[in-house]
Amino acid sequence: MFALFLAFCARDAKARASDADLSRAIEIVRGVPDLRRGLVFTPDRAPDPFVEYPPPPQLAFQLYFDAIAPLEAAAGRKGALMALAEPGALPSVDRSGAAQQAMLARPFPVPDPVFRTPAGGFPCSDIIHYPGKAEDLNAWLGFYFESHVPLMRRLPGLRELELYTRIDWVSALPWPKVEYMQRNKVVFDDADAATAALQSPIRAEMRADFLSFPKFTEGNRHNPMQTREVVRR
Questions:
Q1: What is the secondary structure of 79-125 as a DSSP string?
Q2: How would you classify the pairing of strands 98-108 and 59-65?
Q3: Interior CA angle at 116 toward 155 and 198, to 5°?
Q4: In b/e form, how buried is each residue of 72-99, taking b as 16+ CB within 10 angstroms?
Q5: pLDDT on residue 30
Q6: pLDDT in tens, 103-139
Q7: Strand 37-43 vs strand 59-65: parallel, antiparallel, or unpaired?
Q8: Which residues of 35-48 are buried (b: 16+ CB within 10 A; e: fewer)?
Q9: Per-residue pLDDT tens for 35-85?
Q10: How far, CA to CA in Å, does 196 sit from each of 76, 132, 183, 193, 203?
Q11: What is the pTM of this model?
């Protein structure tokens, strides 16, 4: 599958989307043709024991498609996602730090994929991205798949694991296109479960593995996000 990431990073780290704007964003996502799965993210908290990362986006989306053509149509001049860019749309959302990227989605099996999110709560997705460049991207990705993914699969309470790699794609959405060399996502029942996983011995093993990655620039960013699944087909 292909995944389109849209993120709105606010200048004010405490900014939140209003209930009305969140409802409108969900409505827009539900109206996207040929959408396989649609996730809407708002900020959550799951501190990492090794690094203090910048705050997560104020609002973000992950939209899955079975092919690239419907993704590009959704992001096209007459696409459904243009509703997010209309003047006055989502007035509580700071769109000055907006970014977009389409990527190839690579799911991996996890030992226990059954969610046990408490009633009234939301899963927590930690969405990690690598914004820089690798000296040898092929070697870097190969190391990541062979060495880091097996460690990630051992995180306690893990419900989903996906990696995303770059593609060429077309968009008419009015926000900058980023070219992060890789993203990945680990999903847990809620923020408490995500925090427990990040405090576990496995996270320390992952940190040691991270420090042995082939050469690359700019490190990575963790973004713990409360996750609303609004479309699944």
A1: SGGGGGGSTTSSTTS--TTEEEEEEEEEEE--S-----PPTT---EE
A2: unpaired
A3: 25
A4: bbbbeeebbbbbbeeeeebeebbbeebb
A5: 97
A6: 999 999 999 999 999 999 999 999 999 999 999 999 9
A7: antiparallel
A8: bbbbbbbbbbebeb
A9: 999 999 999 999 999 999 999 999 999 999 999 999 999 999 999 999 999
A10: 41, 28, 22, 5, 10
A11: 0.97
Both tokens of residue 23? 């409802």
Spell out the domain ranges in the chain.
2-232
Topology of the domain covering 2-232: Alpha-Beta Plaits (3.30.70)
Q: How far apart are CA 80 and CA 26, in angstroms?
A: 12
Phi-psi map region of 3: left, alpha, beta (phi>0 left; psi -120 to 50 alpha):
beta
Give the Cβ contact number of residue 120 at 10 Å: 5
Largest CA distance in the chain: 49
Of the candidates 39, 36, 57, 81, the residue with the CA atom closest to the CA atom of residue 171: 81
Residue 163, beta-bridge partner list: 106, 184
Tokens, residue 175:
């926000």
The SS3 call for residue 197 is: helix
Q: Which two tokens stand for residue 210?
A: 């991270």
Task: Using the structure block, give the residue that is written with the tokens 């809407």.
Answer: 40
Average pLDDT over residues 18-28: 97
Q: Would you call 154 helix, strand, or coil by DSSP? A: coil
Q: How confident is the model at residue 177 (pLDDT cuts 50, 70, 90)?
A: very high
Residue 198 phi, psi dihedral angles, 5° rounding: -70, -20
Residue 2's pLDDT is what? Answer: 98
